Amino acid sequence: ASDEAKLQPKTAAGFSKYAAAVEARRARAIANNEPFLQFARHSAAEQARIMATLRRGEVFVERAATARDQASNEIAVEGGLVNHWRGTVFVPNVRLDALLKVLQEPQSDKHKQEDVLSSRVVSRDGDSQKVFLRLRRTKFVTVVYDTEYDVEYRRLTPDRALSNSISTKVVEIENAGTPRERALPEGDDHGYMWRLNSYWRYQQTDEGVLVEIESLTLSRPLPAIIGSIIRPIINSTARESMTRTLASVRARFSS
């Protein structure tokens, strides 16, 4: 692979700094009793509009603002690109306990997300899990990854919970599903996805549970000459992936 698609230590460190800033902001918001879900920060009219969208069974997805350091400067990740998105879905007629219980189990084939080829819980320790997912991502090409995550669930109040899913391993699989299948060296591949962190929040309402995800994906930077052409494709891919993830959560409870 070309140097461009090698994950440099400075890029990995930059992503860690970016993720830490996001995690600190999220923890601060809870400590300061700020709105639990992002859409609750919008105006009342905008909240009503978003809620109507969610009640129709649609997913609300938006680009998240770039993370900032303590001096309020945007954090740039040298040698990499962070795709930072947020999405919300409404799961009607379900209680938070039931939702969390189901989400902590691997998906059955019936509701499997189309980009999750297989999943299993590798180990459990109380509210923490190590989870394996084989993912398929389609941009210009279809790429398959074997990924592992540390996932932790936390109940804040009877009607609020959160979970964080932090990638610990992302390996690109060449010729997946064929006799020539092989794993490329971690961080020395096509560079479409080097890290994937997801931060989830769950809020019980009278009618069901609101589920929100904030996700960070690290990939190689875009070549300047074609960046303007490719960026919209990458954005739409990120948006579609977020939409599929949330839609599959809703589908698991609407059968």
- Beta-strand proportion: 35-45%
| Continuous helix count | 4
Question: Could you tell me the radius of gyration in angstroms?
Answer: 18 Å
Shape type: globular
Which spans have pLDDT < 50 for at least 5 consecutive residues? none
Q: What is the terminal separation in angstroms?
A: 45 Å
How would the blueprint of this fold be written?
Layout: H1 9-31, H2 44-55, E1 60-63, E2 81-92, H3 96-103, E3 116-125, E4 128-138, E5 142-157, E6 160-174, E7 182-183, E8 195-204, E9 208-219, H4 224-251
Antiparallel strand pairs: 1-2, 2-9, 3-4, 4-5, 5-6, 6-7, 6-8, 8-9
What would you say this structure looks like, in words?
- With 255 residues, the chain is an alpha+beta fold.
- It is built from four helices and nine strands; from the N terminus they run ααββαβββββββα.
- Helices cover 28% and strands 36% of the residues.
- A hairpin with a 3-residue loop joins β8 and β9 (208-219).
- Strands 1, 2, 3, 4, 5, 6, 7, 8 and 9 form a nine-stranded antiparallel β-sheet that branches.
- The model has no long low-confidence stretch (mean pLDDT 92).
- The N and C termini lie far apart (45 Å).
Index terms:
single chain; 255 residues; alpha+beta
